[in-house]
Every structure is written in C-alpha cells, then in structure tokens.
Amino acid sequence: MRKSLMLLLSLIFIASALLAGCGSSGNGGNQAPANEGQGTANNGNAGTGTETSNEPFEITIRHTQVGESKKFRLAMLEDVVKQTEAAVPGLTVKLDAVDSEVNRKEKLRGEMAAGKPPEIFDVFGSPDAELYAKEGLMLDLTPIIEELGIKDKFTTLDPFTHDGKVYGLPIGGSIEGFFYNKEYFEQKGLQVPKTLGELEQIAEKIKADGKIPFAQASKDAWIPLMTTNNLWSYYAGPEITYGFKTGATKWTDESMVKAIAKHQEWVQKDYYKKGELGFEYADMRNQIITGEAMMMMDGSWANSVFRDPEQAGDMVGKIGYFNMPPLNEGDPVIVMQDANNGYGFSSAVAEDPRKLAAVKEFIKNMWTEEMQLRGLKEDGVLPAMKMDLEQMKTASDDPLMQDIFKGVSEIGTSFPAFDALVQADVNTALSMGIQQIIGEEIKPEQMLENVQAAQDAANAVE
C-alpha cells in the first residue's frame, strides 16, 4: 500500500479524535464500491449512451448543503437532480447530506481509504482531490468536460487538476473579508478602514461603546483561521504559504510570528466575545444579526444569510462588506480568493455506462451560466465559471452584493486559502495551534514551531 493511502488511514484516526472532541459524528453510507488503485484510462466513453436499459438504478450524491444558511444552494442541487433523473431512464438519485467538516475530515476520508466513495461527493480540490486522484479513486473528467465544451469556461481548475487531468469541478468562487453593521457605522460616524491600524481604532471605539468588535466562533478552527490566514498574508506576504510544502519557506519566519501575535493580541484586547472556542459557526453570525457584534470576518458566501429575512430579520439591508485593509495606506489589497470547493466523482463510475451517463448529465445540468447566475442571485456565491465583472454586477442590485463586487474589483493580489497549499496533517497541527493561541495556552513562537514540525514530517513522506 502506498504512502499516500497510509496517510489517509492515519488521518482518519486523527480527524475522528478531533471531531469526537467537538461532539461531531458522521453517519454511515452504502455506496457503490471502487477498486483501489483503479485507473481511469477507459473514461473516454463518458456519456456515449451505450446502455439504454430502463431498469432502475441508483447513484448517491454526498452534499454538504446542511442548515438554514445553505437552503438556496440545496434548492439548486435538488433542481439539478430532478433534471438529471428526468433525462436518464431508470435513474434515482439519493441525496446524502453531511456536515462539511464531518464529510471532509472524517466520512469521506474513511470511504476513500476503504475504496468506497459515493458516486458524486462534495470535495475540496487541493490537497484532497489530488491525494484521492493519485490513488485512482476519482474519475478523470477531462473527456467529459471537453465533450460538453466547458473545459475552458472555468476561472480556474488548478485545485482539481493532477498530471494535466481534471478530477473535480468547483461549484463557486469566494473571497474573504469583513461583514459589518453599516447602520451602526453611519450612526457613529465610522468609515470603512483603509489600514489595519484604522481597523483596530474602530475596534477600540466599538469596545468602548459596550459592543463586541468582531463576531467569532472558534469551535471549528477553520473559522478563526480565516482571520489568521489573511493577517499572515499581509505580514509575511501571500507567497510564503506556497513555500511551506516545498521547504522553501518556514512557518517559524519572524513575519509569521508577528501575524500570529497580532491575532492573539486581538483576543487579549477582548475584540472577540469570551468563550469563542465553544461557539459554532451559526453563533458567530447571530452575534452580528442580534447587534451584539459589529464586524465579522467570513467568506463572501455568508451574504446569503444577511439577505434573507428569515435568517437576518431586521438586519436585511443593514450589513455591508469590505476587504481586510493593508498595513499601510496605498499598499495593494491582498485577499483570499479561490474556487476550491466543488464536486468529485468516483472512478468506479467508469465501470458502469449508465452511471457514467448519469454523471455526465449531472455535470451538463449543474455547470451552466444559468446555474452560475442563479447561485450568484439567490445564494450570493461568486461564479466559478468565467463571467465579466459587469455582468456579475447586473445579476444583483442588492447593496451587500454590490459591496462584494467592489471588494473583488479592489483586489491587488489574491491567494488561495492555506488548506489548498499544505498537507492535511499540517492543517490539523495549525488548527490545534490556533485554538491554543485563542485559549492563550501557548505563545506564537511555540505554536509555529509545532506546525513546522508537522510540516517537516509531512514533507518527508512525499
């Protein structure tokens, strides 16, 4: 068994232990088997329609559209499923909903290690899809997207590409920045900050007013790491993250220490609500919806919550958005921008012409300009397929969406999220480390030494 598959097995135990500590659990699945190490050279017959039997058959789609905040995306998926079932004789699609973190860090890893992923599944492109593709567990989509004429219509397929072949498709794009209570800012005479120092001045004024400067929930470490990742991209430069996996750069770099120290400083200055390590993602959004907190670092996808009266109530129309500002006024604005989350497909599908036809039909229905625009209008998800910025602006006249479009236009340098550039066990070490930083159990220097040790170990086995 190859090293990467052994890594998968070890990650299951690590992730299971972490998730158990958070009270999370996955539920079992009964998906079609895949042969371990199965190649995909026979994928060229994708969608040829060689099987015309009307006998019933089933495929499973593992998705993560769970909860009120993802209801619009779920509705889109359900519509695509209906289209696909209607076009493929005998097909029934089973939707398997699993929390995103549970799917990524526990359930899908276990299924991949056993060689039995669902036919279609939510997956991160880098590094997850690459690891699974190396083991022959993911379907090569190259011939399908070439036949459908969409291969060159994506903003990027890099996260899902391995050895020149495409093994997944991004469902949407995103940027990360601050949502803020626009009404409160206007009442207090506050302006969108142009520097990080101005952002801190605003935080001090909000705290002095008896409010929480930044909404935050850190039970799942990826949430506070949005702030950390953006901070170190300013202090150390976004290019530093690209070098961790190659050994060209080190987590222990002095600029990285400054970035982590800044995050810990914000915790120590009470810019976040006490007890954030116990708060769930939804709790963070509720802090700003209820007026308890005035700003919140999150992905652009969160706009759908603040535009929905059922979720945001009276706060609809009162929330704005701005990018994290640079250290110095006039410096380029550096923003996390990527398209790393999407769907992958089991390589075992290639063995069944009817399932292969179903997969092709699903792709044909899901990745269209119509669906991309619908995702933008209804769910506020930036397109993963190429679209002119002016066309995006016309898709929604909502003020919050216009703020996000403005944020996109201001980007001087963009970078992918850190977890697209480092190995999974490094991500685990970083996640543990930032929670220790927030809990003030460790100093930035020691935290980064621990992460670098995990990085060295991960690099040694590749």
Task: Describe this entry's structure for a reader.
The protein is 46% helix and 14% strand. With 462 residues, the chain is an alpha/beta fold. It folds into 2 domains: 3-172 and 341-387, Periplasmic binding protein-like II (D-Maltodextrin-Binding Protein, domain 2, 3-Layer(aba) Sandwich); 174-337 and 405-460, 3-Layer(aba) Sandwich (D-Maltodextrin-Binding Protein, domain 2). Strand 4 and strand 5 (165-166) form a beta hairpin. Helix 1 (3-21) runs antiparallel to helix 3 (100-114) and helix 18 (424-438) packs antiparallel against helix 19 (444-460). The protein is globular. It comes from Paenibacillus oralis.
Which properties best describe this structure?
single chain, 462 residues, alpha/beta, D-Maltodextrin-Binding Protein, domain 2, 2 domains, six-stranded mixed sheet, five-stranded mixed sheet, 13 strands, 46% helix, 14% strand
Overall domain count: 2
Strand elements, count: 13
Q: Classify the fold: give the CATH topology of the largest domain.
A: D-Maltodextrin-Binding Protein, domain 2
Structural class category: alpha/beta
Helical percentage: 40-55%
Shape: globular
Summed over residues and divided by their number, the pLDDT gives a mean of 89
Report the end-to-end length measured between terminal Cα atoms: 14 Å
- CA radius of gyration is 22 Å
SS strand fraction: 5-15%
Contiguous uncertain segments of 5+ residues: 1-51
Count of individual helical segments: 19
CATH architecture of the largest domain: 3-Layer(aba) Sandwich
State the major sheet. 6 strands, mixed
Assigned CATH class of the largest domain: Alpha Beta
CATH fourth-tier homologous superfamily of the largest domain: Periplasmic binding protein-like II
Pfam families: SBP_bac_1 (PF01547)
Keywords: Signal, Transport
Signal peptide: 1-20
InterPro entries: Bact_solute-bd_prot1 (IPR050490), SBP (IPR006059)
